[in-house]
Amino acid sequence: MMVILLGPPGAGKGTQSRRLSDEFQIPQISTGDLLREARAQKTDLGEKAEAYMKSGRLVPDDLVISLIEDRLERPDCQNGCILDGFPRTLAQAESLQKSLKVKGKALSHVINLKVSSDEVVERLSGRRQCSQCGENYHLHFKPTTVQNLCDRCGGQLFQRDDDQESVIRERLRVYENQTAPLVQFYSQLGLLQQIAGIGAMDDIYQKLRQTLRGESR
Ligand code: AP5
């Protein structure tokens, strides 16, 4: 099962794909997480990506494409994966199509989570993330039991440096210009499925899992 979760920043891609990964036993691959890891480890890639990420712009295609190609070669992707935050440009989508074709593989689902810009700003400005396991929380929509500590592993929560309102607005602008055209790209390939990303996280999860299981919703 090879799945792409599309959607604007804050649509819930990370929240939902982590849970789907547990249920379907395939890895969730987030280019955002991989790039943040590279920044934390101060690798060459991390240093190149830092300024783009801090300002809400996209990291250049060649860097991200080679990052994802390496990641997809790992043995845990043998039965597929859930791509979260990749592809983000037409060049990335076309490169993925080519690379899958060479390997004799194909996408099984491309799901677009639809969320309004106002909702995105509210979600991202209140988002907090665990510094140890990466679990996502929200000050109001998904608070932790103990303030600032992860319910899953007890790690400290932090706020991402691109979750400031001015950077969120830039990320939304970049999304509209560079990523939204992928909806049409996958629609033309007959692969696109749309799911409303608004409402209770559990309800959205149920719709996603039914879609992946091929059950009618
Ligand atoms: P990335 O990390 O991919 O960020 P993003 O796409 O902007 O997505 P987010 O992680 O912000 O949102 P999400 O949809 O995962 O939402 P979440 O589940 O966290 O990318 C960061 C940067 O890296 C980019 O700006 C770029 O610079 C670079 N980059 C990454 N990939 C790249 C690529 N392919 N090419 C080039 N550059 C790339 O939810 C958000 C919040 O909402 C959470 O607090 C959550 O608890 C809450 N929430 C979730 N669902 C609901 C709900 N139903 N109701 C209420 N609250 C909810």
Describe the structure.
The chain is of the alpha/beta class and 217 residues long. It is 48% helix and 15% strand. The chain is built from nine helices and eight strands. The longest helix has 15 residues, at 165-179. The model has no long low-confidence stretch (mean pLDDT 96). BIS(adenosine)-5'-pentaphosphate (AP5) binds next to helix 1, helix 2, helix 3, helix 6 and strand 6.
Mean pLDDT: 96
Main β-sheet, spatial strand arrangement: 2-3-1-4-8
Uncertain residue segments: none
The SSE order reads: EHEHHHEHEHEEEHHEH
Rg computed from alpha carbons, rounded to a whole number of angstroms: 17 Å
Give the proportion of residues in helices. Answer: 40-55%
Ligand names: BIS(adenosine)-5'-pentaphosphate
Q: What structural class do the secondary elements suggest?
A: alpha/beta
What's the arrangement of secondary structure elements?
Blueprint: E1 2-6, H1 13-24, E2 28-30, H2 31-40, H3 44-55, H4 61-72, E3 81-84, H5 90-102, E4 109-114, H6 117-125, E5 127-130, E6 136-138, E7 157-158, H7 165-179, H8 181-188, E8 192-196, H9 201-213
Parallel strand pairs: 1-3, 1-4, 2-3, 4-8
Antiparallel strand pairs: 5-6, 5-7
Helix pairs in contact: 1-9, 2-3, 4-5, 6-7
BIS(adenosine)-5'-pentaphosphate binds at residues 7, 9-15, 30-32, 35, 52-53, 56-59, 64, 85-86, 88, 92, 123-124, 127, 136-138, 141-142, 162, 171, 201, 204.
